[in-house]
Amino acid sequence: MIATIVPIAMALFAVAALLNLYRLAIGPDIVDRILALDTLMINSIALIVLSNIWMGFGMLFELALLIALMGFVSTVAMSKYLLRGDVIE
Prior knowledge:
The chain is mainly alpha-helical. It is built from 3 helices and no strands. The radius of gyration is 15 Å and the shape is flat. The protein starts with a helix and ends in a 5-residue tail after the last helix. GO terms for molecular function: sodium:proton antiporter activity.
């Protein structure tokens, strides 16, 4: 069951990542581009976790955790820069 569901889920997340790349490239506003980048990070985390489940070894979960942390910090930093014009006060 998992052997058929995981590749389907990976394909759907890959399509979502491609749509996020499209929004990142032609987003009408900088806020749309920041949100597309954050969603692209989430999709890449999902692809890493799904590929880890599919392959059957647990070495890539740390990588997914690091990407999630970098995605959160970068989203907060870009949002602070848009609001205040400076990241560090």
